[in-house]
Each structure stands twice: as C-alpha cells, then as structure tokens.
Amino acid sequence: MFRLSLVTVVTGISIVFYASPVFAEQKWTGVDEAVVEKIAKEHGREAREPFINTDNGDLLLFVFLLAGTVAGFAAGYYWRILTEQKRKEGQG
C-alpha cells in the first residue's frame, strides 16, 4: 500500500512539473532580458551578437568540460601540497 501511494505521489508531482511549461502563457524572462537589456536600453546601448556564440551546438558544454578537466588536473597535481600543509599546521 505504501509503495502504491508513493508511486502515485511521485507520478502526480512529475506530471505537474512537466506539464506546467506547456500550459504557461508566456516564456519566463531571464535576468539578461528582464534587467540587463532594460538598463542598457535606458542608457542608449542596444544588444549585439556575442563574439563567440555558445548557443550553437555543444560548445558551452565543451568549454565547461575543458575547464573541469584543467581544474581536476591542477587539484590532483597540488593535492599533496594541499594536504601536507594542513597536516603540518595541525601537528604544530
């Protein structure tokens, strides 16, 4: 009985969350559209295309992957230094 009620609740919540964008009257505006563009127009600046457009394909995902890889290698390389320094401070 508990499993049936749990599945019913989870299914109901999932339907509500997945169906809400379909029934929304308008798209929610982000900070860029609601705030930044509004203030830019007030000061006489118009929006322009970015130098590197990350909206095409998976370029933004690749950039985050590359940054995570570099940060992972840096953290792994300096891991010994980071942990030994904490041990020396704790023993002193």
Structure report:
The chain is mostly helical. The protein has a domain at 55-92. It has helices spanning 2-23, 31-42, 59-77, 79-91. The radius of gyration is 24 Å and the shape is flat. The termini are far apart.
- Termini, distance in Å? 59 Å
Q: Beta-sheet strand percentage?
A: under 5%
Note poorly predicted spans.
none
Biggest sheet architecture: none
Coarse morphology:
flat
DSSP helix fraction = over 70%
Mean pLDDT reading: 80
Class by alpha and beta content: mainly alpha
What is the tally of helical segments?
4
| Radius of gyration, whole Å | 24 Å
Give the SSE string. Answer: HHHH
Number of strands: 0
List keywords for this structure.
72% helix, mainly alpha, single chain, 4 helices, 92 residues
Question: Which helices and strands appear, and what pairs or packs with what?
Answer:
Blueprint: H1 2-23, H2 31-42, H3 59-77, H4 79-91
